[in-house]
Write a structure and sequence with these properties.
Mean pLDDT is about 80; it is low at about 10-25, about 65-70 and about 395-410. The chain is an alpha/beta fold. The chain folds into two domains: about 30-245, no CATH class; about 245-410, GMP Synthetase, Chain A, domain 3 (2-Layer Sandwich). It has helices spanning about 1-20, 60-70, 85-90, 115-120, 120-130, 145-150, 160-175, 185-190, 245-255, 320-350, 355-365, 365-370, 375-380, 405-410; strands spanning about 35-45, 50-60, 75-85, 100, 110, 140, 200-205, 225-235, 240-245, 260-265, 275-290, 295-310, 385-395. The chain is globular.
Length: about 400
């Protein structure tokens, strides 16, 4: 009997962990109870000291039905709520949503321009502490409008606005290098770093006058509000101080070593008012700080390689060494001009070290930085910056002569 009893007790003890593991997670969320937020925007509310949160929430039933062709319904729902704090506004959103909004799948955090100019510290504190928010969210500032307006963007080739915006941003950042693509993690690091101010992506509205108000419609015949992702938003501390256009943004990217691709247009040698296009295929840069007699300086070296993509007039660069060198010099001049454009607006208009020169000085000269950091606002506009640009055009057999040259020889 004792043996049997011991066997039963042993078996029971072995079964208990299995049963407990099959019981599931105490905090599990059923899929039908969840609303997946794809983008979230932050603005001032209508009342003083009120914050408005706007969320783009996916409608799974509309997505699946739309894929099967059964219904042409908007696959998202946009909803706003307000509160005295960001957290309260976010929690108040649940009063309007039959499903619990979840931020795990969010792609973008968007700030309206007015809100960003007044400071985003409180909002960033919420996004940093909220465990649902992924650090891969892209930080965006809406130029001239509220974040809630930017979230109305739609795109012809994507059913979900967040996917369309992400696709456009990737092209602008990776193939044109005319915007920055800054994640929440990167943005927070820049906010906290000494000698480095933050930047974020800039979003703008593209309005197409609608025949009627698109809000509230389940079916949409035309898209009346779309978006453009280009340029950058510059911060000083946690406050937006201004905008960089496409040229200035690529100048910033040259310094940061983040130019991946793009097109450089130069004047064609030996041909007045004719242009040539150069495709960037590789680029890198280094930033070297220096201090002489207590004065800081920075040397920027950029190296870029390109392919000759197009010429507008009869021209065979392979026959002229001087013409080839001239194109390389002109390519370097364009790059220098873009860097100088970014430097000028950052130093003299924003007084914001978005390049991180101060952080570079701190790394190389930590003792000297302790004397400079408290007066960096005075030193940065006076900072001596030297720019060296080295460019080369590929001379491989893949380089083709112009169509006009080929036709002339064939004729």
């Amino acid at each position: 009997m004792r043996v049997r009893r011991c066997v039963r007790i042993t078996a029971l003890l072995a079964i208990i962990p299995v049963v407990l593991s099959m019981a599931g997670c105490w905090s599990r969320k059923e899929i039908e109870d969840i609303g997946f937020v794809l983008s979230i925007g932050v603005d001032h509310g209508a009342k003083e000291d009120e914050i408005m949160i706007t969320a783009h929430i996916a409608k799974p039933f509309a997505i699946s039905a739309g894929l099967s062709g059964a219904v042409d319904e908007k696959p998202f729902w946009q909803v706003s709520s307000t509160g005295r704090t960001v957290f309260e506004a976010w929690r108040n959103l649940r009063q309007q949503s039959p499903r619990r909004p979840l931020l795990h799948h969010s792609r973008f955090i968007v700030f309206g321009e007015e809100f960003a100019r007044d400071g985003i510290h409180e909002a960033m504190d919420f996004f940093f502490k909220e465990s649902e928010v992924r650090e891969t969210n892209v930080v965006v500032v809406a130029k001239g409008v509220k974040a809630s307006e930017i979230l109305w963007n739609e795109f012809e080739l994507e059913r979900m606005p967040a996917e369309g915006a992400l696709g456009i941003m990737k092209v602008a950042a990776q193939e044109l290098s005319t915007t920055v693509m800054i994640t929440l993690n990167e943005f927070l690091q820049m906010l906290e770093a000494e000698g480095h101010e933050a930047v974020a992506s800039r979003a703008e509205l593209v309005r197409r006058p609608p025949s009627e108000d698109p809000r509230g419609q389940l079916k949409r015949e035309t898209i009346s509000i779309s978006g453009r992702e280009t340029g950058a938003a510059a911060f000083k501390g946690d406050k937006l101080v201004g905008w960089l256009d496409k040229t200035q943004t690529r100048g910033l990217q040259w310094v940061k070593g983040k130019v991946r691709s793009g097109i450089i247009v130069i004047e064609q040698p030996e041909e007045e008012n004719k242009l040539a296009s150069i495709e960037l295929v590789r680029a890198d840069s280094t930033v070297t700080p220096g201090i002489s007699d207590g004065r800081p300086s920075v040397l920027i070296k950029v190296r870029a390689i390109g392919n000759l993509g197009e010429v507008q007039e009869d021209f065979d660069p392979m026959k002229s060494q001087e013409a080839w060198l001239s194109m390389e010099r002109r390519m370097a001049e364009v790059i220098r001009h873009e860097i100088e454009a970014a430097l000028n607006i950052a130093k003299y208009e924003f007084n914001s070290d978005i390049f991180g020169f101060g952080a570079e000085i701190q790394r190389k000269y930590p003792k000297e930085w302790t004397k400079l950091k408290d007066k960096w606002d005075e030193e940065f506009p006076k900072l001596d910056v030297e720019i060296e640009v080295e460019t080369s055009l590929r001379r491989s057999g893949l380089t083709r002569r112009s169509v006009q040259t080929v036709r002339k020889e064939e004729g």
